[in-house]
Task: inverse folding
């Protein structure tokens, strides 16, 4: 019983022996912005940003026309406007995005029950043993992309590989509307050529730390010992050691355990007093509580996030022996964390709150649920 890589790049099986997994990562192309362009013909072919146009607004998503100017998600709206004076800001329609996401999820379900959503617009699928008995993961990815386009009039990019790390890299390799396959044969050498900033799990701060250590590519990362990486990056060191070799044994989890639930809000004007901050924080607290009050989960850890006018950010957290039992308790704890922040040297531009250490043994959803306000 052996496995072979077909000339087409598709991962094929020739027997029942131990075989590589077949993982697909599907990522919708500029999802929020693409939905807005689909539903409003006047926006097609033009630079679009989903988010707030006001001075304190933030770009939630940018069309590919806007990205050519350097506009990116999470960018301040004023910066985006400076980069692209013709940028069109559109108010987000999250109900529409969720409905489209459900359509896409239904298509995934035709092929496998092992689906791990990462957000509304991307997910991992394990199709090693799929519902249609299709031997080629590449064929499944092609069919899914075609069905998504037919059902939603939107494009999706797909990555196919033998683990999650490489599948995610592959889905970004030929965006937009692309498909790329990384076979077991090409995986390790492919990783060596990549800049470490392209690795999932290596953010800007970690990339900078790696660069200071002389680690700029996957090959540089592979040259480091496990001990060296653990000394410099702690528990993440083992993960970096193995992905540099194209190894990632993480399973696709159909029911991910939710780690935290949070919400935040950026204000039109800076807040300077404790009373005003409490008034602004109360609806954020209520929003988070509504997300869990009728469900099975409860939390023991509350984290407060404060961002000042100069963009400096702090967090304050408190963990209790027993779960937070009511909205009133939650609010009181949030206000108690907020109190020591005052008096202020700078005004507050953003407040956020999250609950973690969730107590239910089985919860469904993304690892981090962000609630829009």
Result:
């Amino acid at each position: 019983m052996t496995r072979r890589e077909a000339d087409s790049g598709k991962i094929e099986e020739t027997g029942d022996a131990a075989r590589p997994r077949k993982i697909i990562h599907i990522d919708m192309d500029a999802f929020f912005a693409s939905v807005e362009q689909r539903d409003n013909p006047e926006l097609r072919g033009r630079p679009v940003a989903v988010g707030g146009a006001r001075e304190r607004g933030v770009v939630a998503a940018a069309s590919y026309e806007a990205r050519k100017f350097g506009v990116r998600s999470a960018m301040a709206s004023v910066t985006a406007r400076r980069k692209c004076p013709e940028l069109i800001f559109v108010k987000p329609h999250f109900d529409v995005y969720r409905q489209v996401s459900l359509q896409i999820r239904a298509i995934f379900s035709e092929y496998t029950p092992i689906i791990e959503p990462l957000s509304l617009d991307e997910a991992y699928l394990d199709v090693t043993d799929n519902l249609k008995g299709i031997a080629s993961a590449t064929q499944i990815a092609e069919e899914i992309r075609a069905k998504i386009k037919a059902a939603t009039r939107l494009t999706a990019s797909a990555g196919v590989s033998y683990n999650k790390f490489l599948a995610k890299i592959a889905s970004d390799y030929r965006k937009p509307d692309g498909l790329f396959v990384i076979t077991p044969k090409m995986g390790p050498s492919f990783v060596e050529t990549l800049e470490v900033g392209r690795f999932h799990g290596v953010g800007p701060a970690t990339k900078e730390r790696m660069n200071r250590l002389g680690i700029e590519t996957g090959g540089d990362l592979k040259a480091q010992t496990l001990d060296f990486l653990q000394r410099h990056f702690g528990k993440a060191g083992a993960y970096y050691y193995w992905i540099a070799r194209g190894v990632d044994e993480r399973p696709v989890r159909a029911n991910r355990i939710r780690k935290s639930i949070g919400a935040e809000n950026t204000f039109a004007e800076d807040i300077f007093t404790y009373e005003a901050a409490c008034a602004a924080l109360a609806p954020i607290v209520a929003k988070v509580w509504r997300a869990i009050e009728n469900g099975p989960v409860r939390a023991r850890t509350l984290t407060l996030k404060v961002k000042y006018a100069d963009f400096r950010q702090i967090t304050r957290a408190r963990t209790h022996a027993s779960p937070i039992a009511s909205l009133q308790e939650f609010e009181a704890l949030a206000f108690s964390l907020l109190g020591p922040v005052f008096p202020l040297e700078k005004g507050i531009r953003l407040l956020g709150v999250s609950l973690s250490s969730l107590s239910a043994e089985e919860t469904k959803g993304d690892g981090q649920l962000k609630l829009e306000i």
About this structure: The longest helix spans residues 274-292. DSSP finds 13 helices and 15 strands in the chain. Residues 111 and 131 are 5 Å apart (CA to CA). Confidence is low (pLDDT under 50) at residues 1-17, 361-373.
